[in-house]
Amino acid sequence: MTDTLLPSIDPLPQERRLVTEIPGPRSRELMARRQEAVSAGVGGMMPVFTERASGGVLLDVDGNSLIDLGSGIAVTTVGNADRRVVERVQRQVADFTHTCFMVTPYSGYVEVCEALNRLTPGDFTKRSALFNSGAEAVENAVKIARAHTKRQAVVVFDHGYHGRTNLTMALTAKNMPYKQSFGPFAPEVYRMPMSYPFRDGPHSGAEVASWATTKMDKEIGGENIAAIIIEPIQGEGGFIVPAPGFLPALREYATQHGIVFVSDEIQTGFCRTGQWFASEHEGIVPDMITTAKGIAGGLPLAAVTGRAEIMDDVHVGGLGGTYGGNPIACAAALGAIEAMEEDDLNTRALQVGAILRDKLEMMAAANPAVGDIRGRGAMMAIELVQPGTLNPDPDLTGRVAKSAHAQGVITLTAGTYGNVLRFLPPLSISDDLLREGLDIVAAGF
Ligand SMILES: *Cc1c(COP(=O)(O)O)cnc(C)c1O
Prior knowledge:
With about 450 residues, the chain is α/β, with parallel strands linked by helices. It has two domains: about 25-70 and about 345-440, Alpha-Beta Complex (Aspartate Aminotransferase, domain 1), CATH 3.90.1150; about 85-340, Type I PLP-dependent aspartate aminotransferase-like (Major domain) (Aspartate Aminotransferase, domain 2, 3-Layer(aba) Sandwich). The chain is built from 13 helices and 15 strands. Helix 11 (about 345-365) packs parallel to helix 13 (about 430-445).
């Protein structure tokens, strides 16, 4: 490290410690300023302002140390301010901050693309392109698939989430809060039934896939479809893990009809589920993968990675953007990937997943409202219903989340029906802290 770098600061004690009520007075003061300065349209889960974060905790401006079970929505998979991310970012920010890769390139961008091409499933030649946000990556995946196939139709699924830009709003299933009053939406987007084992009754993954493929045949025509875009485990939709056989059947349909199969791994990617990418659990090899969130330890970066012949089938200049693959974000991604490999975070995600499953099973045994436990690795959720039915209970879900928040545990909700508690801890959390956080969630029922 050179003297241009900031001195390292003391590590944060890895403990839950409440010194004020939540939110404390300084957070409340900042919330009042936020209300005066920030658009009311920007949502908020917890009214607590952050001072520092690392490992499994977040220190707020009042000195409370909270347990983080959300990772800023599956972003800080390697933990906040991981040393390898911080060091590379500090070095890069002191060297240069921006040139625009399309003006004069730099090696970090190429290195991130090389890592993506190496780590994503499929042993064919690949190319990648970098962007700023998940939504931007998904939009570009659609552009590339359309240019390659010379077709227009895009297929997505019930409960799917792909972003908040105009095209990705059209791809996203849920109206409130993502789409309400923001139309008209982009055309040529078709939504198909999704395998949702908890709600599908006796129907198998293959059966639900056949509903989807029949609908594609009859309502669009396979030869008109540019891309099938699916999350291998749905994120915002409520951590829905499709039944075995569902994804392979769609993959097969895409192959038969020359459709680009796009796996949106923005939430599931980069060790979250115990594999580099969740597609691997089902043994499917996508033609294209979109990534963001966990890729760069918290800096804004996103990517499209795919078969070279598809990715190169776009005219020069057709892809890009001022900031896409910013050098600091690329440095962060290289640090995050280094941390994932060095610390074997896929194994860690499975360990975290085992603790999660254990605790969630205890919650289910004690509370008949827990209708389903699902997910993979460090991406697990429970769906809350009126006992013995499939009727969603979003009120109870909100109450349990609020009670955890008041006790200093950051938890997130999700789901089309708002009745899913989802757990996405940073993989840097300790076992004890994770167990403590989940016990506090359990106490909120
Ligand atoms: C978060 C998310 C997106 C959108 O990413 P942004 O960076 O918020 O634009 C797209 N797809 C999936 C599966 C996501 O979880």
